[in-house]
Specification:
Layout lengths: L12 E8 L3 H9 L14 E7 L7 E7 L2 E5 L2 E6 L3 E5 L2 E2 L3 E2 L6 E10 L2 E9 L3 H9 L2 H20 L39 H6 L1 E8 L3 H9 L4 H4 L6 E7 L6 E7 L5 E12 L3 E8 L5 E12 L2 E10 L2 H10 L1 H15 L4
Antiparallel strand pairs: 1-10, 2-3, 3-4, 5-6, 6-9, 7-8, 9-10, 11-17, 12-13, 13-14, 14-15, 15-16, 16-17
């Protein structure tokens, strides 16, 4: 998508174009997943304190900013979504195509692949009249949106660098107010699944998300996860070992095993696999020991990023108490260590 194709009006449209040293697939993720938005979307020191995304035409795109201690709510909808290429949203409507009383602009963002993992990024703010465009210009459109692009590039490159940049790790300890009311465990809007429990906003408060970009193809990472002889070799945090009692890595199958900590403590586990989509996604239920009490739903997704694999592990705990217990036990860091062991197992650590 080129600038020429946007039919720009110099009186109504403000335009910013930059070349970013990151693939457009990563930039698309940053723009369309609410867990990423707070890391770049407004110039610092201002903050995004809440974000709701229902990623479909007509779906909501709502944010709340903290600007010098003042909360600013922004409600809008998506008008056009072309994966990895173009997104358009407006504040002229709110969800349900309800006209907004005082609309300000429609935004168009395009991502053009220019080779070598780089992207030509164009952002257009389109206004209803010349006065609104001039007002936005005087507010500092180019400086503000330019700063946002700098922050986006830094954040995207951090996501590409693996374990030291697990900035997408979310949960109530990080930007706890980010909760899409239709979001699933990853807070991703239209991908919501009924298997992720409870009211959606509440589920977001009980969800941990851990991501790692692994420098290996999806097929390789998938085999390491879904081969019975491989999974127990790397599963678990540093210093932990697995003792398998039963393993059947198929949809409808299960894995009954003990995690043995560095001090010899045994933690009985039971994973029941409810969905297996080859090289794409695994859903499973976590139990405390074989057929024991359920304490979480988990989802693992595998996404090709230019020949590398972004692995995203989401865990939605049954209760707030289960979440708190896992958090206090150090589940965030232990999850990162587990994905680190996976990377090393496939030779990408």
């Amino acid at each position: 998508m080129t600038v020429e194709a946007l039919d720009l009006d110099p009186e109504l449209d403000l335009v910013l174009t930059r070349e970013i040293d990151a693939p457009r697939a990563i930039l698309w993720q940053c723009w369309t997943r609410p867990e990423h938005i707070p890391h770049f979307f407004v110039p610092r020191p201002h903050r995004v304190t809440a974000c709701e995304i229902d990623l479909r035409v007509g779906g909501r795109f709502n944010t709340t900013f903290d600007v010098d201690g003042t909360a600013m709510e922004n409600k809008g909808v998506w008008l056009e979504l072309i994966r990895d290429e173009k997104l358009v949203f407006t504040d002229a409507y709110t969800e349900g195509w309800k006209p907004a009383p005082d609309p300000f602009m429609t935004a168009i963002v395009t991502f053009e692949d220019i080779g070598d993992g780089r992207t030509r990024y164009t952002a257009v703010a389109r206004h209803r009249n010349a006065d609104a465009a001039q007002s936005h210009r005087e507010m500092g459109f180019h400086d503000g949106w330019g700063t946002v692009v700098d922050q986006l590039e830094d954040y995207a490159r951090g996501l590409m660098q693996g374990p030291d940049a697990d900035a997408s790790m979310q949960g109530p300890d990080a930007d706890a107010s980010m909760q899409g009311s239709d979001a699933d465990a990853s807070m991703q809007g239209s991908d919501a699944d009924a298997s992720m429990q409870g009211s959606d906003a509440d589920a977001a408060q009980r969800t941990m998300v851990i991501e790692r970009l692994i420098k290996a193809p999806v097929a390789t990472v998938w085999r390491a996860w879904m081969t019975p002889g491989s999974l127990p070799q790397w599963w678990g945090p540093d210093g932990f070992a697995c003792r398998t009692r039963r393993i059947d890595l198929r949809q409808g199958g299960d894995w009954v095993f003990d995690m043995i900590g560095p001090d010899g403590t045994v933690y009985p586990n039971h994973h029941r696999f409810t969905l297996v989509q080859p090289e794409t996604r695994i859903d499973y239920v976590l139990h405390h020991g074989e057929n024991g009490p359920k304490h979480a739903d988990a989802r693992v997704s595998f996404e090709d990023i230019g020949g590398q694999t972004r692995v995203t592990l989401r865990m939605t705990f049954l209760t707030a108490a289960d979440y708190a217990q896992a958090r206090d036990f150090g589940a965030v860091e232990l999850g990162r260590q587990t994905l680190g062991k996976l990377a090393r197992f496939v030779g990408a650590g």
